[in-house]
Amino acid sequence: MDKKIEQLKCFESSPKGENSTTNFGVKISNDENTLKAGPRGPSLLEDFVFREKMTHFDHERIPERIVHARGSGAHGYFVSYADHSNLTKASFLSAKDKKTPLFARVSTVQGPRGSADTVRDVRGFAVKFYTDEGNFDIVGNNIPVFFVQDAISFPDFVHAGKMEQQNEMPTGGSAHDTFYDYISLKPETAHTVMWVMSDRGIPLSIRHLQAFGVHTYRLINAQGKSTFIKWFWKPLSGTLSLLWDEAQKIAGKNGDYHRKRLWDDIEAGDFPQWELCVQILSDEIIEKFEFDILDPTKFIPEELAPVTPVGRMVLNKNPDNFFAETEQIAFCVSHVVPGIDFSNDPLLQGRIFSYLDTQLSRLGGPNFNEIPINRPVCPFANTQRDGIHRMTINKGGANYFPNSIDGNYPRPKEEASVKGGFLPYPEKIDAVKTYKRSETFNDHFSQATMFWNSMSQHEKNHIVDGFSFELSKVTRRNIVERVVNEFLINIDKTLAEKVGKNLGVTVEPKVTKNIQKKLVKPSPAISQVNLLSGDIASRRIAVLIFDGCDTEDVMSFKKEMEKRDAHVDLLAPSNAPVRGCDGPSLTPKSSWVSEPSIFYDAVYVPSCGQESLELLQHNGDFLHYILESYKHLKTIAFSGCPSIIKETLRLKQDLGLILGQGWRDVVEAFTYSLAHHRVWERESLASTIPA
What we know:
Heme binds at residue 355. This is Catalase. This protein is of the alpha/beta class. It folds into four domains: 73-174 and 192-374, Catalase HpII,  Chain A, domain 1 (Beta Barrel); 383-410, no CATH class; 452-529, Catalase, four-helical domain (Hemocyanin, N-terminal domain), CATH 1.20.1370; 534-686, Rossmann fold (3-Layer(aba) Sandwich). The chain has helices at residues 2-9, 48-58, 154-161, 177-185, 190-197, 244-253, 257-267, 283-286, 323-327, 346-362, 446-454, 457-472, 477-486, 493-503, 551-563, 610-616, 620-631, 642-649, 663-675, 683-686; strands at residues 36-37, 71-80, 99-108, 123-131, 134-141, 211-212, 217-220, 226-235, 273-281, 307-317, 340-342, 433-434, 540-544, 567-572, 590-591, 602-605, 635-638, 657-659. The strands form three sheets. Strands 2, 3, 4, 5, 6, 7, 8, 9, 10 and 11 form a ten-stranded antiparallel beta sheet that branches. α2 crosses α10, α3 runs antiparallel to α4 (177-185) and α5 runs parallel beside α11 (446-454). The longest helix is centred in the middle third of the chain and has 17 residues, at 346-362. The chain is globular and about 90 Å long. The mean pLDDT is 92.
């Protein structure tokens, strides 16, 4: 054993006192910027330092994805709203009502495949369009910006955010030392960290995710005109989130909560839908911006550049086999079709290389495109042959170009006559090779402040709570103090003071330079308060039934809610049928304990007789159900039994705690309250209620 330990010590490496080098010992002069053709130019393939670092990172895990390992997916289709050929020659956007099959995958970033769905994290949102010109992938997130500006920093960010290397904890979360050590030393992370610490980091469900392409892309029409754009996915169900206490409890009760809710909705025929939108960035609009559209840490508020819907996505079929489809699907930023091109965003430029490199490792070689879920629906032909897992049986005698044996096929057409072929935008490049970053990327805190200023009061409270919780898990006091005094203080003084107070940190800002902020005016389109759907379609309602409840009341309320396209489940003290006071027995879906209030958006209690009322007043499971729902600011309606609220629980009545005599008395108020998602005015009071 001692001999083995000595052997292992030969491979130990300490970072102290060492200069950065490549794996072959070449000293690195710059480890934060890729080599580019000019500060705002494209990244260069000759940058061997970046390629070595990214290649090693891409191959660190097999076969699980390094990031985005925990995911859920579904098949669907996209329908174009119109002929958008004025913007792009991409075929799937070329005609009104044109339908394109697709597969979408939504994932957390940090945790492994076995982690929980409801952790605080960024959600990946990737869509593969099987167009008649080839596969096109939009590989985005539910947050419109990213932590770092240059792809060479991506491995460092992921290493810092992942489970700590000495103990592989925590699973699926960022509440630990290395994450906050990194972000507090990397000011460019400020904007994205604010989004993650907000309610956006704990979405209610997959169908309630707003998503973004993050980067700036080009659309190119048949005349060769280029237009910069940003991709947006807007959910038709509204953008909604969990509360932090809910998210944690759901993680313990059902780690597959988001996956199951998506699966159940599709199986029930209640198909999630999103609008695909573009933010069109004309030269006139871009000139007005006080930030760089190539900077992936910057967001373009809708007030500065309106969002135009171009089509609708519907997810309508669950996978037949999770591994074969959801796990083996391979998204690549480099999967574009004619009419769509890249910008010089240095993070995007690195992802173009990284995603393909990752699939080569994870899926066993260069033929991952032949796995059924990845195959295009259009014909494909080239001179690529052989390799592990080759499925195509290529006929003919030549596997090279040019050739005379097979009539010189397959071959490209001459550029001037290419019909529908991919041609990059002929951007003129005349620059000096450099590791420098464009000075237009230097403003790191303005948009983080804009995000804070755009939040409603309860959303600001949740951000304070998010930072307070996360930093309470950081064991090194100097890191906590640095986050408060050198990071949060530069976003907003009130934010820093409130978080500092919760952590016992005195706010003493260490100003190293005068930070000039631009564009801090609120953007109403960012706040989730303004992103509600306006209805209760797809919302989940728990109806608590029990012996002696009014059967007609139960069934009438259920029918009324289902007319509004809500999901209604009958839940009882156990899985056994209950005896109604006025008719046949009712069969519950499950019990109050098996399907707790955290799985539902609202609760309804039907009317009942005095005997049943007395039993409910002493039933701990029932009282806990109501208290927990109240604590989580949910709509609760009693069509009778007011004494439980007024005398037993002594809860303060509000717009979301509705008392009546029969279902007709409460149905409209119930619908109105649920359509507003939560009873936010209850929050300060509810925080004192144990549950």
